[in-house]
Amino acid sequence: MVLGMMRDMKDNALALSMKKWLNEKFSDLGEVLDCSLDSKACTLEMKLKMPGETGPIMLKLDRYEIEKENGDRYIVLHQFSSSREWVGRLLSRLFNGKRYKLPAAVSALL
């Protein structure tokens, strides 16, 4: 129970860091309104406000992996899904298997 609470706290802190980083990096594409992470299931869910959309879009990274290399941490993206089916398919096609270095603020929480 205590380990579960600690993981939830870590997941919440990571989600807040990811939300901040994504909003800074991709502000011209929209805004992350909400972000939740489940490190046990290796999933990330976001609620997005996108230009031209009448309501929020839900986006889920259905699976990711974290890799360590030379003191740095990387995220490897896998399957996506979305409330806009074409968005999930496009992201999966473009980013499945792609690896990205995590920002220091996020890595520090892992």
Mean pLDDT: 90
First-residue to last-residue Cα separation: 20 Å
The low-pLDDT segments are none
- SS content category: alpha+beta
Compressed to H and E, one letter per element, the order equals HEEEEEEHEH
Summarize the main sheet: 4 strands, antiparallel
Give the overall form: globular
Total number of β-strand segments? 7
Compute the gyration radius: what is it? 14 Å
Q: Helix share of residues?
A: 25-40%
Number of alpha- plus pi-helical segments: 3
* Content of β-strand: 25-35%
Instruction: Give the neighbour order of strands across the main sheet.
Output: 1-2-3-6
What features would you highlight for this structure?
about 110 residues; alpha+beta; three-stranded antiparallel sheet; 3 helices; about 35% helix; about 35% strand
Describe the model.
The protein has 110 residues and is α+β, with helices and mostly antiparallel strands. It has helices spanning 2-25, 85-95, 104-107; strands spanning 31-38, 43-49, 57-61, 64-69, 72-77, 80-82, 99-101. The strands form two sheets. The protein has a four-stranded antiparallel beta sheet. A three-stranded antiparallel beta sheet has the order 4-5-7, with no helix packed on it. The radius of gyration is 14 Å and the shape is globular. It starts with a helix and ends with a helix. The mean pLDDT is 90.
